[in-house]
Amino acid sequence: MTFATLAVPANYPYVLLAVSAFPWLNIYQAVTVGRARKAAGIPYPEAYADRTVAAASADAMRFNCAQRAHQNTLESVPQVIFTTLLAGLKYPIFSASMGALWVFGRILYTQGYATGDPAKRNRGFFQSIASIVLAGAATWTAIDMTCALL
């Protein structure tokens, strides 16, 4: 078995810097959820306020929305980390920029959603575009690297 050498571009630290913002996003969202939980009086280990409680309490609705914003991020962050790191092997500045844009979009998404009005989550809509673009760039990077072996 032979092994391929993986060359990391000189600008790759920008990719690492962008990805290092992801845990800070998680911390920000966790604090947002914690504050909303306290304001709503939702005890642990309840993940969400019951639908009837949320309908009767604006604080409970804000908690549910903040919790959903955080959960939605946790559902997508592994994919975004992977695609940012992979695409960064070929397009480091572009990938770092898309990763940073994704984080910024998730912040706006969280701020909007945590108001208790789910429609306000759309303020950060461009994070979805960044995620799709990163998936495409990662796929292209993998294809390009594979073709180089042929």
From TrEMBL:
Alphabetically ordered keywords of this record: Lipid metabolism, Lipoprotein, Lyase, Membrane, Mitochondrion, Mitochondrion outer membrane, Oxidoreductase, Palmitate, Transferase, Transmembrane, Transmembrane helix
Annotated catalysed reactions: 15-deoxy-Delta(12,14)-prostaglandin J2 + glutathione = 15-deoxy-Delta(12,14)-prostaglandin J2-S-(R)-glutathione; leukotriene C4 = leukotriene A4 + glutathione
Uppermost EC category: lyase
Domain of life of the organism encoding this protein: Eukaryota
Main location: mitochondrion
Pathway of action: Lipid metabolism; leukotriene C4 biosynthesis; Lipid metabolism; arachidonate metabolism
Matching InterPro entries: MAPEG, MAPEG-like_dom_sf, Membr-assoc_MAPEG
Transmembrane segments: 12-31, 80-104, 124-143
Topology in membrane: Multi-pass membrane protein
Compartments reported by the entry: Mitochondrion outer membrane
GO cellular component: endoplasmic reticulum; mitochondrial outer membrane; nuclear envelope
Any GO BP annotation: lipid metabolic process
Protein name: Glutathione S-transferase 3, mitochondrial
Native source species: Botryobasidium botryosum (strain FD-172 SS1)
Upper taxonomic lineage: Eukaryota, Fungi, Dikarya, Basidiomycota, Agaricomycotina
